[in-house]
Amino acid sequence: MTDQTPTPPKGLGKISGKGQERDVEDEFPDESTLPGSPVGRAQRRSRGLLGFFFIALALFTLKNFLPALLWGCVFAIASWPLYQRTEKKFGRTEWLPMLFTAGIALIFLIPLSLVGFKAAEEAQSALHWIDEVRHTGIPMPDWLNDLPFERAQVARWWQNNLVNPEHLNRLFHSFDAGHGMAVTRQVTTQVAKRATLFLFSILTLFFLLRDGADIIHRVLVVSNRTFGKRGEKLARQMISSVHGTVAGLVLVGLGEGLVMGVAYVLTDTPQPLLFAMLTGVAAMIPFLGLPTVVLAALLILIQGKMISAIVVVVLGAIVIFVADHFIRPALIGGSTQMPFLWVLLGILAGVETWGLLGLFLGPAIMAAVHLLWRIWSADSEQELLEEGG
């Protein structure tokens, strides 16, 4: 009896004959490569829907870590020009992205550690002061007599509630201790959450710096394949807005904090280093630097130094006015050719929508919208080519 090999079902396995083997798929033409083929169009739509589904699923999975990833991208975009120059000078090594990542982490960790240390010292002093005044009361300060209005009413309230230790103890006991513990737990939870997000941001930054050249190449390929050259122009506009925001908000804000820090030291402000840091951070957001300066001036006024308080307020108002109306528009708007109104709306609306991350996302989104507006509103072919790239 002769052995007979069963013929494989159509569409499965391989077909062999005269010592040659070939895939069954070779027997059928790939209809997706045929232009205008209904099967090809259906496959392309299916691939697009499948890709969109997995991208949406990935974003949903990473939703709690998206802020950390976006912060890592912002750090990478801001430091990439300096990283490239350093890489060209010293060559590409495995240590370079690690050193850059550690340096950027220390930029944040050192000031936060100093603020935390000062806050712990002040908290300890405050607890000691509270324990003392519960037995002695709070004497009426001399500056109450210099108030321009409501002097008698304020002095009477102070005498009735703060000078007498018994009344002061009743005031302390009126605070809800359970609510205070709940607030403490909430603050601790938020600090732990922010620390975790910061750790993942730094980790993201390291990998973006290490593989930055390959990532940029692939992003440009995807952009050109999907949107054409205008997609690359749009991406470059958004990146320029991040660079301009770093220079216009972060660096200018730190400069304001440095100038006001010198003023705080010269006017003998309580905790001048702490107030300089707070002013620098607050000044990164338009219109928030002045309240910090006013708070420092009030502490100076409580010490009875009215002239010093006025000098701090006037100097702070001048510094913030010049920075917000002249320096920032030139740095942020100049890098993206955006009007300052667009920049201001992007910053304020971005902070309101995205939190602190909106300082960078808001201007980047507005820069993209502004570029699209200029492309769509171009009234000549030459202008269209200039805007669209």
From TrEMBL:
UniProtKB keywords: Membrane, Transmembrane, Transmembrane helix
InterPro entries tied to this protein: AI-2E-like
Coiled-coil regions listed: none
Pfam family, one: AI-2E_transport
Region spans: Disordered: 1-40
Membrane topology, from the record: Multi-pass membrane protein
Localization of this protein: Membrane
Entry similarity comment: Belongs to the autoinducer-2 exporter (AI-2E) (TC 2.A.86) family.
Name by which UniProt lists this protein: AI-2E family transporter
Organism of provenance: Asaia siamensis
